[in-house]
Design goal:
The structure holds two protein chains of two kinds. Chain A has four helices and no strands. Chain A is an all-alpha fold. The longest helix of chain B is centred in the middle third of the chain and has 38 residues. The chains are: A mainly alpha, B alpha+beta.
Chain lengths: ~80, ~425
């Protein structure tokens, strides 16, 4: 597990009972996260990695799973 | 970035709490208070009675830099930090809840365009919103859907010509009779989407809603949207992200403004109660010498102080970009709106029959406070959020404590 994935799982651990989930599990479709989670994730990525998420980044594929978020952050770093 | 003057932790010492304002924040607070005392307090009851806000007062607020508070200086705004913006909302809320709602909805539209708008949208609208040339309003609620906002019935469909055809109805829109730019939510081919809709678009109609219990000067309106051709470039963010990101961003700012405004409203009720109980005599002594009156006054004082401290904490989280701020604004809006109702209720009780009279502002405070428990997410919606997140936090802490115990047991040679 790389450091980005580790930090995402640590963040996710605040919102789900078991953050040790399949890295490809669709967090939104699974119903594991609340309606506030989407914006909390945006704030986390911006604060933790200094990445500004803008309107053009609003793509479900960027945020739907641990692997998707890791890929998005890695690509933008 | 940490808000200056609001350091809750000092890394050089164990833990300190410092709620002192910076010189700039104190100066801004003094300016806001004086402005509200001069321009809002003397006319708030009159506007409540006439159920309108004069356009010149809105223009004055814009000239004072209040409408552009959350907008970056790059676009002509004030670029206020979260605490300064909160202090403004507190003072305006102390003067008039209706005008607080103007700051709130105008701020929500400004914040959404700043945060999620395209470059073109930012350049086109933010300077006008900052100057007050354009007043913004927020259109989510509908006749059949208030708290259940995810199931709104307004619809838009993308046409081959490159525009959306928008149809629907919105209700309880603060300053809907005044605004010229509306952030409207609709299902675009089934996906929740936010649109910028202009008053002058063909098919747009607004009708006043009168006789409300509170927010009487807020120009509440019913919006009728019939076959409006909305250019595709007026979509904010992307289709499908209207609720999760756009409305969430707006509502977070809205709840934050309302929370500070409720603190101001509670302070206004307290000030009125202190004035009245310090002047009026019953049974040969001032009201504030009676212990049962003192009980009410002390609760108002302590509750208002607690509300303000929660607002300070929310300001700190907002300024530092903490993901937890979304939960905190929900909690602080819930608490401060309850405090506002409680303080206004006590203020009326202390005033006795005078409290029901239009000769005193406390009846307005009470009517306006009650609506705070409904707007930008009712208290019951906030309670769902607070209780669920509280339980989740409990489970996480329990899990983490258990993991630490297991680790220490495993590493213990005994």
């Amino acid at each position: 597990m790389n450091t980005v994935e580790s930090s995402i799982r640590s963040f996710l651990g605040k919102y789900v009972s078991d953050p040790d989930i399949d890295a490809d599990l669709d967090l939104f479709a699974s119903g594991m996260v609340s309606s506030l989670y989407a914006m909390q994730l945006v704030l986390f990525v911006e604060k933790e990695y200094g990445i500004e998420i803008a309107n053009e980044d609003l793509d479900y594929e960027n945020f739907k799973s641990v692997n998707a978020i890791t890929g998005f952050i890695t690509e933008r770093q | 970035m940490q808000s200056p003057g609001l350091s809750l932790k000092d890394s050089n010492r164990s833990t300190t709490m410092d709620f002192e304002l910076t010189a700039e924040q104190q100066s801004a607070k003094d300016r806001f208070r004086e402005w509200v005392d001069r321009n809002i307090v003397p006319v708030a009851d009159e506007h409540d009675a006439s159920e309108e806000t004069p356009p010149e007062l809105i223009a004055n607020m814009a000239s004072a830099g209040f409408l552009g508070g959350v907008i970056s200086p790059e676009y002509g705004g004030g670029g206020m930090d979260a605490l300064t913006w909160g202090l403004l909302c507190e003072q305006v809320g102390r003067g008039s809840a209706s005008l607080l709602s103007l700051l709130t909805v105008h701020g929500m539209v400004s914040q959404v365009i700043s945060r999620w708008g395209s470059d073109q949208q930012r350049k086109k609208w933010l300077p006008k919103l900052a100057s007050g040339e354009v007043v913004g309003a927020f259109g989510l609620s509908e006749p059949k859907h208030g708290s259940d906002a995810g199931n709104i019935e307004s619809e838009a469909s993308l046409q081959e010509e490159g525009y959306y055809l928008l149809n629907g109805e919105k209700r309880w829109i603060s300053y809907g009779m005044t605004a010229t730019l509306f952030l409207i939510f609709a299902k675009a081919d089934g996906k929740m989407t936010a649109f910028l809709v202009e008053r002058n678009m063909e098919g747009f109609r607004s009708e006043p809603i009168r006789g409300m219990l509170g927010f009487r000067a807020a120009g509440l309106a019913r919006l009728v949207l019939k076959d409006i051709k909305v250019p595709a470039e007026n979509v904010v963010g992307k289709p499908g992200f209207g609720f999760s990101h756009i409305a969430s961003t707006a509502l977070d700012l809205g709840r934050y403004c309302i929370a500070w405004g409720c603190t101001g409203l509670s302070q206004a009720a307290l000030d009125a109660a202190l004035d009245y109980s310090g002047e009026r005599k019953q049974f040969g002594k001032q009201l504030n010498e009676h212990q049962l009156i003192q009980e009410m006054l002390s609760d108002m004082i302590v509750n208002t102080k607690a509300a303000r401290l929660m607002c300070y904490h929310a300001a700190f989280l907002k300024e530092s970009g903490e993901p937890s701020m979304l939960l905190e604004t929900s909690a602080v809006k819930y608490y401060t709106s309850r405090v506002a109702v409680s303080s206004a209720n006590s203020a009326i009780q202390i005033h006795g029959a005078n409290g029901f009279s239009s000769d005193y502002p406390v009846q307005r405070y009470y009517r306006d406070a009650k609506i705070m428990e409904v707007i930008e997410g009712s208290s019951q919606i906030q309670q769902i959020i607070i209780a669920r997140s509280g339980y989740q936090q409990h489970l996480v802490e329990k899990r983490d404590r258990a993991a630490k115990v297991n680790t220490s047991v495993t590493s213990d040679p005994q």
